[in-house]
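Sharing a chain and its predicted structure for anyone who wants a worked example. Both blocks are below, sequence first, tokens second.
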Amino acid sequence: MTFATDLVTWCLYAAFIIVAISQIMAMVRLWKGPSTGDRILALDTMVINAIGLIVLIGIFQGSQIYFEATLIIAMLGFVSTVAYARFVLRGDIIE
């Protein structure tokens, strides 16, 4: 192994740790959030962190299938956040 591959590997490990800590912090905000809006934002942040973790796994393993999965998760995360926010604000999702 060369210095460059060792550096990339260590940077990936550091990124895993940072995103995992961010995910834990979002879970704490989801659990303790004083308002419903805070909980909605925490869920959205958790979706973004999950996308980040899946992308890091894809980079680490060198597989492209993970990137396609992240696109699907991103679309589902966006739709679910909008639906949950509409439900909280209006009490009904479909008008």
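Comments welcome. The first helix runs from residue 3 to 32.
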